[in-house]
Structures are given as structure tokens and as C-alpha cells.
Amino acid sequence: MDQFKRNALRYLPFLCIFILILVGPFFVKNDYLLHLGIMIGINLLLALGMRLILLIGQVSFAHAGFMAIGAYTSAMLSLYAGLSVWLAMPVAGLMAAVIAILFGYPTLKIKGAYFFITSFAFTEIILLVVTHWIEPFGGPTGLTSVPRLNPIVIPGLGSIRFLSEISYFYLILAIVTLALLMMYRIDKSRFGLTIRAVGQMDTIAQSTGIDIMKHKVMVFAIGSFWAGIAGSFYAHYTCYVGPGNFASPLGLNILVYAVFGGVGSVIGPVVGTAIFTILPEVTRVAKFYEPIFFGVSLVLAVLFLPEGLITLPAWLKQWIGKENKITA
Amino acid sequence: MLTADVIITIIINGLISASIYILIALGLNLLFGVSNVINFAHGDVVMLGGYAAVFFSTLLNLNFLSPIAAFFILGTFGIIAERLFFRPLRGRMLACIMLTMGLGTFLEGLVLAVFGSLHQGVPPTFAGLLVLGGATFPMQRMVIIPITAVAVTFLFIFLHHMKIGKAIRAVAQDSEASALQGINTDRIATITAFISFALAAISGVLVAPISSVYAEMGIMPMIKAFIIVIFGGLGSIVGCVFGGLILGFVESLGIFFAGSDIATIILFAILIFTLLIRPRGLMANGSV
Lengths: 328, 288
Prior knowledge:
The complex is a heterodimer.
Chain A lengths: L1 H26 L3 H25 L7 H18 L4 H23 L4 H21 L1 H4 L14 E3 L3 E3 L4 H24 L1 H11 L1 H6 L4 H27 L9 H13 L6 H17 L5 H16 L7 H16 L1
Antiparallel strand pairs in A: 1-2
Chain B lengths: L3 H32 L6 H18 L5 H22 L6 H23 L13 E4 L2 E4 H4 L1 H18 L1 H11 L1 H6 L4 H23 L11 H14 L4 H22 L1 H18 L11
Antiparallel strand pairs in B: 1-2
Helix pairs in contact in B: 1-6, 1-7, 1-9, 1-10, 1-11, 2-3, 2-4, 2-9, 2-10, 3-9, 6-7, 7-9, 10-11, 11-12
């Protein structure tokens, strides 16, 4: 009972926030805020996958590429083959995962900076292919009039049609909740411990009998799966897919979302994604000064919060403590 | 189709792009070898070099001052960046990647705020055309080849026959061991950052008249320079020159036969396959 109480207290704040997000749209009828919420959701899917890949010790730039793969797969399936989006979205995720396995199996043995540049090249190749072949991919202008999600018909109750922000908001909320639960389960499982071991010192992990390549490829595939889902959702939400959406700023942004909350826990990416999705929106009024603001906050965060934003309270406490000591 | 002038055009164009990329790649390479920093702001230093050319040639009308001024001003910026950013983050790859990308974003934003998003032109310093076996080239493009050759030779002599240069190579090989020999590794890192940024600045000044100057002008050359560094192996000058020549010719041939998109795809594919076979580059030997 005591155990249960303690657990309940621990999860109470999260539950409150979740309920707040759940009922929020009924009180705040603002499409822009809902759009912001949807973007946070999409970015969070990317960040959660990225965090898992960072845990195995690989810094990847390929996540933008996998998002592009997901977006194009599902847009093309629904545009050309007339497949229901509800089917196209998981297929897009699986497609990203399969390509991640094909690409990751040979390349994940490459380490550090070299892997980073390999993954960079991967994303560039994907974008160049998509830009060059106008026939299926739409070329530089991309694919327009990508269908929205098909309506769900509930017999007797009518149908849910995906036309407004609010319906997309609840859908992404459901997907993100699923992803968060999955990541949380992975963290608490033996698999989660194993991938941390692989990430920290893969040779030692290998010497204890862990198949490190299998784990690296699996994690890479899981992370890319969510990137594919995010891409697909983005395509059907904005009704547009173009190579410009996935160009190099996105790769950096995904890393920022994943790292700046702190990769130690699942909450880290949530905080990082929320802050770094809202920040550019707030500074957008400043136009040209927006990249300056982004750059400065990035540099300061790297220099002063190496373990992520969730260490900010502890850091402040320590800093204030130090100040007090000096004055005393 | 393959007449003499076409072949000459392909070769010379290959040499010209190789020269530009080599200048950029050498700086990246040195900095990685010594400080273990993959500098994603390097392309933006090239861009700043371009804007230095805009500033000195168009606004002040002092054409010949721009390379010298860019060399020293941006070299000094390199020293500042080393002190403020690279030194505290030594040995932390992810942090370095994020920081240098942040720095790059900041620099691009700064330039956008100051100069606006319009592409700026720079009048050529060297006017005239050069006719080589039926093919003509603007002088401004041609001079890049000898300038790079001179710079590479100087750098080679500096690194192999002078005390500081030898110290730089020693630190790149093993910074702890060289510290034990009495080499001031922090000072070496500072000097390396100066050289690295100054080389990028020079290439920016050289590129400015032949392509226009804008905030993202350094990104593509920097990516190409990364490919070279990988081909040649991080930390090898000869490999860097070699990689640069391969890349220059593959690009020039690819553009001629298949267009620039396909050429770039081929380059990236070669890069990935190279790393699959040699995960540390073609000529990696851990020295500069």
C-alpha cells in the first residue's frame, strides 16, 4: 500500500498534465495553439526515436531522412495506390524501419564522427533522389494535395472526419502517448539496460555476451519507425510533402529536441521538444533575429547545461548556493 | 563529343573545384586532428570570408586588402572560438557537433540581419580570360589553382619542417604524450584554430567573385570538404589533397555526363562505401 501511494504521488503530476492536455482544446479554441501542439507532438516522435539511438552511442543525422522516407511512402501510397491513410501510416513506419535495418546493418559498425557523416550523406542522398526524379516524387516542388486522413465511421454515432486541427491534435496525442509508453517500457526493461551498456562501452558489453550489432540495428529500426510515423503524419496533416521540409536544419533540430531535455530519461525529450518548438515561434516576430536567438540559446545550453535542461533546477540551486557562500 | 577542349574543360573545372574544397578541407582536418572538433561552423567561416570580400572590395574599394584582412580577422575569430567553445568541450563529440551547428546558425542569422538575404556580387580581382587549347576560363577562376598549390606547399613545409608545425603534428598524433614532452598543447590548439579559420576565410574570399555571396554559401562546400576529409582520413594532408582531387574530378565528370544532382548522389554513395570498407577513411594514419 505504501509502495502504491508513493508511486501514485510520483505519477500524479504527469497524470494532471496529461488530463490538462486532454481537456485543453475544449477551453482554448485557438487553431494556432492547436497547430503548435500538433507540431510538438510530431517533433516529440522524432526526438523520442533519436534519444533511443543516442543511447546506443550513435549520433545520427539520418532521422530527417527516415522522416522523409515515411512522409513520401505514405503520401505516394495514398495518392497513387489510393490506400487508406490508416493503413499507409503504419506501412510508412515499417518502410522507414526496414530501410533503417538495410542501412544500419552495414553502417552502424562505423563509430563517432564517421557515423555522423555517413548518416548525413544518407539523408542528402534521399533528398537528392526525391528532388531529382520528378516522375514519382514530384521533384523540388514536392507532392501536393496529399489526402487527409480518411474519416472513421462509427455505426449509429456518425463519423469522425479529419478536417480540423482538433481531430489531428487528438490523433497525435494518442500516437505520442503510445510512443511514450513504449519508450518508458523499453527504459525499464532488460533491453533498455542492455542498450545503455552497448552505448557506454560496446566492447565490454560484447565481452559479456551481448550481440551488440543486433541491439544497435534493432534500436536504429525502432527509432526510425517513429520517424517514419512522424513523417507520414506530417504529410497527411499539411497535405504536402516536399524535399525542403527535411533539409539539414531539421536534422539539427531533431538532435536539439532529443539532447536538450537530457537523454537520461523519457521526460527529457518532452521538455526539450516543447521548449525548442515554442522558442522559434515566440522569436519569429523578430524575423532575421530568430536564427541568432536559436544559435545563441543552443551554444549557451551546450556550454552550461551539458546534461540537459532537466538539470537546470539543480544547477540553479547549486549556483545560488555558491552565491550565498560568497556573501556569507 | 569528347573533343580536346571539352576534356580540358572537365580537367580544369575539376582542378578548380578541387582547389577550393582542399582549402576548406585542410582547415577542417587540422582542427579535427588537434582539437578533436568537427567544426560544422566551418562553412559559415567561409561565408564570412565571402562577406569580408564584399566589405573590402565593394564598400571600401580595397580589393587586395580583402584576403589579408579576412585571413587575420577570421583567424583571430578562430582563436576566440577555440578559447570560448572548443577548449571546454574537448573530447565531447555530440556537444561539439551541437555547439558548432549552433554557432553556424548564429553566424548565418547575424549576416542575414546585417546584410539581408540578397545575394551580393563581388567584382573580380583578376580580370580577363585564359585560353587553353580551345577552352576559355576566366582568370578569376584560374588563379584559385596556383593560390591553393602555394597554400598547400606552405602548410606542408610548416607542418613538416618547422618546430611549431611539428608540434602540431605531435599533438594530433597523441596529445598526452606530446604534453609530456613539454609541448604546450593548449597553445598548439589555439594556433591550429587560427590556421584553420584563416584558410577557410581565404577560400571564402577566393570563391566570392565567382559565385555570389549569401548566408548559406558555405554549406555545400563544407559538405564537400567533409567528404574529402573522410576520403583522405581525418588528420592527413596528403590524403586531403588526394581526396580533394578525386572529388573535384568525380564532380566535374559527373556534372558533365549526368548533371549535378546525380554527381552529388554518386559522391555521397562513394563516401558511404568508402567508410564501409575503411571505417576511418582511405588514408587514416592518425597524423597530420
